[in-house]
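ok so i was messing around last nite and threw this chain in just to see what happens. nothing serious, just curious
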Amino acid sequence: MWNKIKELFKAKEAIDTTIPANKPKTNKPREPKKQIELTPKQKATAAGEPYIAILKVDLDPNDLNNGAFELDWNDKFIINLIKSGYKIREDDSDQNIVDRWFQNVCRNVALEIYEQDQADPTNRDMRVVRSKDIGNGRTEVS
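result:
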């Protein structure tokens, strides 16, 4: 019986000798968690701020006076436009509301440039008014 017990211990020792007692742990370097980078639109939406951006400008190469803008916006921007009176009809879509706002912005830019141009005395349309006395108390103005 003692022999059987000795054989059991020998078998355990044989098994134990194949596995190192103090096996060093190999720590794999942890990869930092990849944080998903939010787009500016997502950041503004999360902060409850209005967002509008020009995504693309298309110009006709044959006629540079014709073109199109592709805009992107969030719901907060639409709500602000509606509060400012850009929604005229109940069936106005978000695109119609933004288009109405963008046309207004473009109109204001054009008017401001015109007013600045007209305020400059060197750019004013200085018309020369000529008057000619044609007799009998009458005057011709051209």
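not much to say yet. Helices lie at 2-18, 40-47, 75-83, 94-119.
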